[in-house]
């Protein structure tokens, strides 16, 4: 049985997902799409060699009797409405992050899903599907390093576009850690503090770069995340978990070791697209398989809500310089 | 268009390929199989949830008008006949190694394929599809280390079954290096010498383990390959290319770095199945794509023949202790 | 010319320094010692094959016309008085840390030294003499990574004695970072904050372990130091400097790389004595050479004072949980 | 008691040893020297701030009643005569390699020493004093990797002077491995074969570079040593010991790890002088200590003879292309 997918939004990510579903993944096919620019959608389908229908809008995609499940890859501010509509229609929906433009919006989706009575929503956080993070989680879960006490993390980009501002360090960059570190530690954030080191001369004047974000979790784990988006040297994701009996570190991407020019070196990636490229495939394949199996297991609407609540507190902490509480409601039994 | 595959032989590897083609890869489906044990084949298909037909024998699979291309995963001595029959039928065939039981048998396949006038055969050498070897080859091809002068390689297994003998170090173990090193260097072997170090006390009495195989290539590159199949510590594949301007080394498989018990360590794989697991997928996907595109580009019948000629010389060198010539005929233009 | 040294205090460290000066280093000889336990001192000299005189007390050592320079390795609370007496006598003095029991005490030494008009005091901070830290500093000074923006550090011990308490994490452990990071960055601390992660179950009940100490420097560099003295796995000192154009990391101690038991591993030291063993030699040799050359260049009384001021603020921050200022007076021109 | 040393030959190495003995090492002083250029010797002593006497020739140094032990650092062809004279005079002698210009010459020294009845000679092989090789030997001796079966080694220089020829790859380069590998394995060579890879275009026309030298030892260990003296990228010494239960590798020199310009790198040394710089100190300090203790334990005249016998066979193998025997007489009980 092939899962028939509708894709809302045929921009860069939407096209990428259409290609992925039709050519790389197993068990699914894109049968309907929509885009605010219908002509663009048609051209994209042609390029992608897809015979999917072009619907009038995202709601039409969701309603289409031919569509089994929906991918939301449209303009961020439309995510909430399309996701709610998919829940209303009782159709599984994979929504790219952000799930909504606010924690309240995420909460509305959570409430709608709980009311529906069954998980229908997966948020597009792909790091839990990265082989490196999965190996790291296995080490923790297997008890190899004892209980985690501290996490030292870094998220570094060589550079960022001109429109990138201080707040986007949270909403566009840290957002991935906000999700994956909850998943890794099976814990929730309790407080956050942001400190600003000396600003790099490589950063544009309106951007405070780097930043360090400090969390305390409910269990008392202390997490520090360095965000440095003008580090110049590469796209580099670090995560070190200090446990009671040892320390585990996220694998470096595999590369040829070179002895040359008085250096023993391995290559560091520079383009973020290369870093988690396989995780995108695994993530969407998992969604397809889970939909077919009748039970979603990936990042949930609750996870999207949690990331959003944490991001709001981070931004508050950026501005206040104080230790800000992260007030998460108790996790509903529905999401256990 | 889905490529309809016939699979000859539904043992362990055959079943693995059926699962792979039906569930993991894109653009192909297994529609017919055969096995010397027809009941076993039926049971396997049931377990694999496949509706493929069970044919009377491999020749029937090849003849079946429903079958576009053939995978040969049967008993080694039958490979040649099935591959020849597929060529005769003008159908693309992916044949697991060995292509034939002798260099002469491989040569018959080469001749048949040339006579047919178009490449139809891919041999199941998967290492050229491993991401690590591909990265290593790219470094060479890009000229990063200058012209290759020497290769230092190792092929180590933690242990081997009781029936494994000295000759199998060539035919079952070194055979992978025999193929991938030709591919890596775009060169052919000229001579071979085998030396036997002190035998490991971990090896069974009838097995000379380890062995070192020394090649000179047509271009004068010197290659040493350590074969050590009772190394106890892991399944470990090493390849270091010493060039005029630098040295490049096959990446170690990625793993979590641990600080524990006074050791800073990374895990070494112990099961060979884990080492190239992704390469099997890539290899077969490439075959499927190439068949659809109308042009095979993977390891050819000529490559299978070359590996077989080299293996024969290695076995001769094991016995003689002398430097043995490896006499390869000139590569036919057909295979350029 | 051999420098004639007096050693005050012949406990473990004192004996170690006598051995070092007499047998390992060049250009000095221990000619006089004292200890609160004179019999113990005599026995030690005999074991060490030294013909040094045993003086009545430390002041007698200092006064001895035979003594050119003094090493203070006595009970911590006596350091200040002996150092002041050495200054008074105009003799160079190498004083093991702590220079005094309080910042005020250190300040009295600074004032006395300035009044004397020439540097006479070196404090026993040995990390600036470690080859690894020196290599790291060279990378920074050479501009290889641009201006430093952040330092991520860790000081981990496998375990600590029963009497070790929360405050000692600052005074006995962090004290080394307090000195070496000032030296590395050529910067002074501005504020400090201490956060307490979940306590390790390996720590005794009265000890909060681990701790994270967060500094801001005058130039705005942000430093985090993890102190974890029950980490179980080894004695591990980490220091990573994040600069505008790259990141440099303190070298791991050199060790044999092993492939064994499914692990690719290097040894981590477990005994702190092994980690900086060469630095102790280099440190004392530098003192000897500098005394002979007439100009001290190592860690100064001012450095001892600065470390003490910072340590006091750290302890205050441990208790308050707040961001505490570190109020260092301007560096006197005398110490430039 | 200070050991009074005579130094024969005050060229670069002689001056280096004078500086070392007088300023770095403990328990010795250079009291007499000689050189074919007496004026040069005087100038050197002045530069080195040494009050040693300048004797008429090396024999006068040896005869001087003021001299306890002798360092021979003169022109290679004079080594044998000075070493024999020192034995004749019953004085301990440290002779830089080569001990003599031929195996026969070395044998004459061995015979004279045996006749004298007590070890007096240490040859200047410094690698057994390198901390890395010592750590590697400890791993072997401790049984961590089981019995050694194979050694894979490399000796690479970035470049060599114009006068360096093919034979010098043995006598000037491999000579260090010829000694240290015997010491590491406590074994003797049985046969040798040399193979010549494709010649690097970086090598001058008269030089066959690289070369691979293949040994079999008495115990059956197989050793391959790559000699590559125009490798361009650095001075790189590799030694990997493959044992029955694991593999141990010579430590890489410690260096700062850098993340910069899309590379994660460590520095490789380029100047051979930096690689074993500490080993020279340790080596000579050991000689001094051993002389004082009345029992030499370092590389012996027998070791010098063994290296010379092996080197002769290597050169024969370079020319013949055949597997050449290395015929070592049985080790006299005197050297056990």
UniProtKB/TrEMBL annotation, chains A, B, C, D:
Keywords: NAD, Oxidoreductase. One of its GO terms (molecular function) is inositol 2-dehydrogenase (NAD+) activity. It holds the Pfam family GFO_IDH_MocA. This is Inositol 2-dehydrogenase. It catalyses: myo-inositol + NAD(+) = scyllo-inosose + NADH + H(+). It comes from Pantoea stewartii subsp. stewartii DC283. The lineage of its organism: Bacteria, Pseudomonadati, Pseudomonadota, Gammaproteobacteria, Enterobacterales. GO terms for biological process: inositol catabolic process. Signal peptide: none annotated. Residues 137-326 form the Gfo/Idh/MocA-like oxidoreductase C-terminal domain. The keyword NAD applies. HAMAP family: IolG. Its EC number is 1.1.1.18. Involved in the oxidation of myo-inositol (MI) to 2-keto-myo-inositol (2KMI or 2-inosose). It is an enzyme of class 1 (oxidoreductase). Residues 4-125 form the Gfo/Idh/MocA-like oxidoreductase N-terminal domain. Belongs to the Gfo/Idh/MocA family.
